[in-house]
Amino acid sequence: MQIKSVNIIGRPGVYDIEVKAGLINNLVKVEGLAKQVLVPTFGDIHVHLDKTYLIDRCSERVNNLGDAIRICSQAMVDSTFEDIKIRAARALRESFFHGVCAMRSHVNWHESNPPKAWIALQELADQWKGNVELQLASFTPLDLFEEIGEQIAERVAKDQQVLGAFVLRNDNIDTKIKYVFDLAEKYDLPLDFHVDESLDPRACGLDSIITEAEKRQIKGRVLCSHCCSLSQRPNKIMVDLLERAAEVDLGLVALPSTNLYLQDRELDRTPIMRGLAPIKEAYSLGVKTMLASDNCQDPFYPYGNYDPMDIFRTGVMVAHLDPNEWIGSITSLPRKWMGLYSGELQTGQIADFILFEGKNLLNVLGRAGSSRKVYRNGKAIETNGYD
Ligand SMILES: [Zn+2]
After folding, report:
1. How far does the centroid of ligand 1 lie from the alpha carbon of residue 132, in Å?
2. How many structural domains compose the chain?
3. Residues with CB in 5 Å of ion ligand 1
4. DSSP code at position 224
5. Distance 47 CA to ligand 1 centre (A)
6. Sheet of strand 379-380, all strands in order from the earlier edge strand to the far edge
7. What CATH number did the domain enclosing 33 receive?
8. What is the pLDDT of residues 355-370, one digit of tens each?
9. In-domain check, residue 387
10. Residue 348 C-alpha to ligand 1 middle, in angstroms?
11. What's phi and psi for 144, nearest 5 deg?
């Protein structure tokens, strides 16, 4: 198979691509204008499949993060094992047809035994293997770790998944974060924190996380999502933290849609702050900085469609990012962080990619509805099968 006249992301010029036996067999530079843009398949490193599509069951108005947590928790109580699987499978289908090849979902975990969503999503992970590699991260309020953290860590290790916590202005935060790291070391687990999802500058859980990672010299194993309050702290402190974060190879995930929806949200007042972590500074100081979907169609974010290109468009606009420089934030970086191949578009690599209509990435971002074809192992996948 040959695909003619494409602009390959990260490579100047126009190319014809030859695909053979599921691999990129040859890239030939050609004259003329590009008609299509080739992007690697996506990694969506932060979603919540146990909560997704619950929005239609939640009529109460959400005014802040606390409301979203409460209203969503109520809706989750009534969700059966089968219902979770149906909703999560729908999300996986949408993701797959948008070109996602890997995903990490957080799963609410508030008791010592694994929640039904953990089991349901593990079944789906098995079913989707080879199409969407689904990783799971336990998601537990930091204050519950003393009571149930050991049981959670033991089970997460048995299932070879990721240990996660929700950290926001907890009392005795240093001691509690230290215990999470103790468990991670004991069970050899990667960590994934929701941390400082607030614009209150007193939210500084990130400081404790970096300090623990430094003490133990744990590198490349700790992912921190949100870190909104970092944008509200004095510049010198922010830069110092990001330099230290880069030193321990900490990963940072910004969630532009949820942050825009929940941060600086006040009744009858236009939001002023964007809620995003200082991702440009993080990136330029060497922190692995990624973007992800987070919540889709639940009380935390009533919109969303599991299209990382939509999230990227939002991130590019709200944070004034250079699209060509940042495309790795939804492709190679999250895939590598999840332990998968980077998906570089080079000769000899697996022919997994997305072909967008347009001359270049700016064209693609300029047309939200522009058509795409997803190729996996050199074959175009049918895109008419999702809700
Ligand atoms: Zn989240």
Report:
1. 19
2. 2
3. 294
4. E
5. 6
6. 23-30, 14-20, 2-8, 36-40, 353-357, 372-376, 379-380
7. 2.30.40.10
8. 999 999 999 999 887 7
9. no
10. 36
11. -90, -5
